[in-house]
Specification:
Blueprint: H1 13-29, H2 33-46, H3 54-61
Amino acid sequence: MAKFNNEIITDDEKARENAMKECGMYLQCCLSAGELEDLKEDWRETGGYKAIPWWRFAFDNIKVSYK
């Protein structure tokens, strides 16, 4: 799961949500075609947009690490 760094955008809740949306969309663009299809399938099985917005599902389910 990605973890949002609240030290960068702190006070403005709307700005934080917009940044999280952008981050979720960017993260899904970094996946291979196969990983993206797996993510989409998992999202659909969870209930799709009725259950959770795509950007949020991507943000919550893509692991970010530094090596």
